[in-house]
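Need residues for this backbone.
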């Protein structure tokens, strides 16, 4: 399977100015559009220089810092997307009015524009609403976020921040009944160049990034382990050394691409209200209800994926209760 599946794509790039310091360079336009577009491009360049959260703008490049060898990358994949697209007539016509330029998806959600437009529109849009919300929370933390179609690669400079990001994003997606699986990899990462250009004849979007952390995060998510899980590649196990032992657990069905998973039912701190036995059992029951509701609506041949998730929740719950009994899960 190729690393990036080919679908109509949306690229969102967010860079903290203090950390990444993007530089912009004018790109040539078609001759018949040069005069008409020059003022617009100058205005966009001026605006982009003033903000640290601007996406790549039309006709400009963003050049990134040198690659690093010790990085954590998160790969996020919306499950069942291909089947939804194939089974939804006029899918693009239904989605285009929602994904308007310069409109945040959170604003779309609050305006109730989604309505009853079918599972594809609702799931695809809510998937990106959750991503956009979490990404915006980290714009001052040096995040690099590359989202396209039904998936995303996320990088944060601090490994522990990437784990926390994954856990909070997965909880939100499950609450929204968005079936998703994630993979975490450790290694090299470089975001080399992001470029977007538009002319009357063509639209060009270039996203050049790579690294062993990218490959390993994708491999973990594609490891064959089913369910709504955050799977950890063996390369990233060193990141877990300083993590709370309740925040992750080894996989009985692990393989060369995924040997552990993040326990996203775990909430750190907060005393017995978050870490007591009653709180742990209640959290398990709440998230199981979310998954049960997704399983009930899923096609018969897909329901076993949700059963795998429920089995994982039982293991997460029992893992925390066992640590609590041994007083290793502290308040």
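Answer:
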């Amino acid at each position: 399977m190729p690393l990036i599946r080919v679908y109509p794509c949306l690229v969102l790039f967010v860079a903290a100015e203090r950390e990444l310091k993007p530089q912009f360079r004018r790109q040539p336009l078609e001759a018949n559009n040069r005069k008409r577009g020059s003022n617009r491009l100058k205005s966009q360049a001026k605006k982009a220089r003033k903000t640290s959260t601007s996406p790549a703008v039309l006709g400009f490049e963003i050049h990134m810092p040198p690659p690093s060898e010790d990085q954590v990358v998160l790969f996020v994949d919306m499950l069942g997307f291909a089947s939804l697209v194939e089974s939804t007539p006029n899918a693009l016509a239904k989605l285009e009015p929602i994904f308007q330029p310069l409109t945040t998806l959170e604003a779309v959600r609050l305006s109730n524009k989604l309505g009853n437009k079918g599972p594809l529109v609702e799931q695809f849009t809510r998937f990106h609403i959750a991503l956009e919300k979490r990404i915006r929370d980290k714009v001052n933390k040096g995040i690099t976020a590359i989202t396209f179609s039904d998936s995303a690669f996320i990088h944060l400079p601090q490994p522990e921040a990437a784990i926390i990001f994954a856990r909070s994003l997965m909880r939100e997606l499950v609450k929204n009944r968005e079936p998703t699986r994630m993979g975490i990899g450790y290694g090299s990462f470089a975001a080399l160049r992001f470029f977007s250009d538009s002319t009357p004849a063509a639209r060009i979007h270039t996203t050049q990034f790579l690294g062993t952390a990218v490959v390993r995060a994708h491999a973990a998510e594609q490891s064959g382990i089913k369910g709504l899980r955050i799977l950890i590649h063996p390369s990233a196990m060193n990141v877990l050394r300083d993590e709370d032992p309740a925040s992750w657990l080894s996989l009985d069905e692990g393989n060369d691409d995924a040997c552990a998973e993040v326990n996203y039912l775990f909430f750190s701190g907060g005393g017995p209200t978050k870490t007591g036995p009653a709180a742990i059992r209640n959290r398990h029951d709440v998230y199981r209800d979310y998954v049960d509701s997704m399983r009930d609506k899923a096609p018969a041949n897909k329901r076993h994926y949700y059963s795998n998730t429920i089995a994982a929740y039982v293991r997460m719950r029992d893992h925390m209760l066992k640590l609590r009994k041994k007083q290793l899960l502290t308040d």
